[in-house]
Every structure is written in structure tokens, then in C-alpha cells.
Automatic annotation (TrEMBL):
The keyword Cytoplasm does not apply. Keywords: DNA-binding, Transcription, Transcription regulation. Residues 193-294 form the HTH araC/xylS-type domain. The keyword Transcription regulation applies. InterPro entries: Homeodomain-like_sf (IPR009057), HTH_AraC (IPR018060), HTH_AraC-typ_CS (IPR018062), Tscrpt_reg_HTH_AraC_N (IPR009594). It comes from the Bacteria. This is AraC family transcriptional regulator. One of its GO terms (molecular function) is sequence-specific DNA binding. PROSITE patterns: HTH_ARAC_FAMILY_1 (PS00041), HTH_ARAC_FAMILY_2 (PS01124).
Length: 305
């Protein structure tokens, strides 16, 4: 990392520290911009990544997409170009040098706007690409990120300048190594965009029986072609994708409500409570009751600290 980039990163560290102060997720005054802080290593967390750019100013993180492992830190950025169920874990942090990161969410329409308004050349037809990737951070991207975060000190400028700086960040990313992969989510008719439509259908109907024929029709593909492209984009099959969504939703329901595991199993689309319990334990490391007890004890400990 060059001296200029170290200075940029150091400034971002100070700004994130100033706008967080305590561990957790911090929504900022800039729409779709979040800061994260952790003073300790974390346990693996199951969540769905929205389309977003993530940059770690300090620390290291590991992200698992199915069986694929991505590790990134201050010399990289991570992009999720679609909604993807992942497992993430902070693997480098301490009270003296906390994990600090930045996440900027974006939409398909924002990507398309940048493509239409700029001279970025994107191939209209590309094979489906993985929707999660790690790239090497560049000074031009860091510079745009810094100008966006500086707006937090001048809130009156946010409505006008934040969209401009966000657009510049996306423009810089589209010019980079993974620009074509990022662009494909916005290119109507591309294999990636058609898989995106199928993913949205699964997310919106994750409690119902999954019919591959309907998903393939949504993507305007044969069943075999749909399976191949879906796995290329998400690293998993449609059935595995839906299962992760269901189990994550079940865990949230068990944490927030007093319903028992069997009731929640049926609510998220399982016909067999025993199958739900087995798959839940396989994903989260313990059966529903034991897992939720452990999570609640952890949260109570944090609140008491």
C-alpha cells in the first residue's frame, strides 16, 4: 500500500471511530451508508448480504458463500452484487485496534445510471459471473469513499453531494477488474440479470414450495442452463439457496417471538419439524432450543456489560 493510500486509510479509521464509539452496526445520515465496529473477534454470523460495497479500514474479515471462502482487509474491497446468504466473521480485532469497516449499499438502477451516463464500455453479453468478489482497493476509490464520509461533518451537503460521490464510487468500481461482473446485474437480458430475477422470486416466496421449472421460466432458460448459471452466480443450487433463507428467517423468528420450533418450522415452509431441527442444527451448530438459549444468554451478557 502506498503512502498516499495509508494516509487515506488512516483518515477513514479516525472518521469511523468518531462516528461509532461503541461496537455494533451504525447507520449514518447518508442513505445506504453504514459503519461497523468490533473490539473482539466474532462468532460466525449468518446473514443476507444486500448489493453493496464493503471496505475494511482496520482489521480482517472472513466471508463464506456456500463452500467458498473470501478473506479481505484494508488492501481489498468486497462487493456483493446481489442478495446472497453468507456466513461472516471478524477474524482480526482487539480493544486497542478494533475492527472498523464501511458498507455502501447500492441498487441495480444506480449501476445502470452510471453505465448510461459514462463512457464505461461494458460487454452486453457475458457469461454469468459470481455475485460475490474481492478486489484490490485503489487510491481513486478510497478518495471517493473519503469524500463521501466527510459529508457527515457537513449534513447540509448530504442531499446534493452524497448521490454524486456514490455515483463516482460506482464509476470507479466499474472501471476496475471486476467492472464487467458488477455491470451484468444491470444489463437487461444478461445471464446474471436473469438469475437476479430468479433470486428475487425465491426471496419473495421463500416459504413456499420451490418449483425449478417456474424459476427457469422466470430466467428464460432451460432447466439445465438455469441450474448451471444459478450455481455460477451464487455458488449453490436453488434448493440450497432457499434452505439458507428459510433457516435464517426461522432463527430470527425464534429470537423475536415465543413460538416453539415446530410452529416456526411450518411458518417458514417446512412440512416436517424433525427435518427442520436436523437442518437447523447442521447450519447453526445446535438444535433450535439450544441455539436460541445460547444466543439470548450472549445478548443478555452484552446488555449487562
Amino acid at each position: 500500500m502506498s503512502e498516499e493510500m495509508r494516509d487515506q486509510r488512516d483518515e477513514l479509521v479516525k472518521r469511523i471511530e468518531r462516528h461509532t464509539g461503541r461496537d455494533g452496526v451504525h447507520k449514518t445520515a447518508i442513505p445506504s451508508l453504514y459503519f461497523f465496529r468490533n473490539s473482539n473477534l466474532t462468532r460466525p454470523a449468518h446473514r443476507v448480504y444486500n448489493p453493496s460495497l464493503c471496505f475494511i479500514a482496520q482489521g480482517l474479515k472472513e466471508v463464506l458463500l456456500a463452500q467458498e471462502r473470501f478473506e479481505y482487509g484494508p488492501t481489498n474491497y468486497l462487493i456483493s452484487s446481489m442478495n446472497l446468504p453468507v456466513i461472516s466473521q471478524v477474524i482480526k480485532a482487539s480493544p486497542h485496534i478494533p475492527y472498523l469497516s464501511f458498507r455502501l449499499e447500492f441498487s441495480q438502477s444506480q449501476i445502470l445510471e452510471v453505465i448510461n451516463d459514462s463512457a464505461v464500455q461494458i460487454a452486453s453479453k457475458e457469461n454469468a459471473k459470481r455475485a460475490l468478489f474481492v478486489g484490490k482497493i485503489e487510491s481513486s476509490i478510497l478518495d471517493a469513499i473519503l469524500r463521501l464520509t466527510r459529508l457527515l461533518d457537513n449534513p447540509k451537503d448530504i442531499p446534493f453531494l452524497a448521490p454524486i460521490y456514490t455515483k463516482e464510487i460506482l464509476y470507479r468500481l466499474l472501471q476496475g477488474q471486476y467492472g464487467p461482473a458488477l455491470a451484468q446485474i444491470a444489463m437487461e437480458g444478461s445471464s446474471t440479470s436473469r438469475i437476479r430475477d430468479a433470486i428475487e422470486q425465491i426471496i419473495n416466496n421463500c416459504n413456499t414450495l420451490l418449483r425449478i421449472e417456474e424459476l427457469a421460466e422466470t430466467a428464460n432458460m432451460s432447466i439445465s442452463t438455469f441450474h448451471r448459471h444459478f450455481k455460477e452466480v451464487t455458488a449453490m443450487s436453488p434448493i440450497q439457496f432457499q434452505k439458507q433463507l428459510r433457516l435464517q428467517k426461522a432463527r430470527r423468528l425464534l429470537l423475536s417471538e415465543s413460538a416453539d420450533a415446530a410452529e416456526v418450522a411450518f411458518r417458514v415452509g417446512y412440512e416436517s419439524a424433525s427435518q427442520f431441527s436436523r437442518e437447523y442444527a447442521r447450519m447453526f451448530g445446535a438444535p433450535p432450543r439450544a441455539d436460541i438459549k445460547r444466543l439470548k444468554e450472549k445478548y443478555d451478557h452484552v446488555l449487562d456489560a
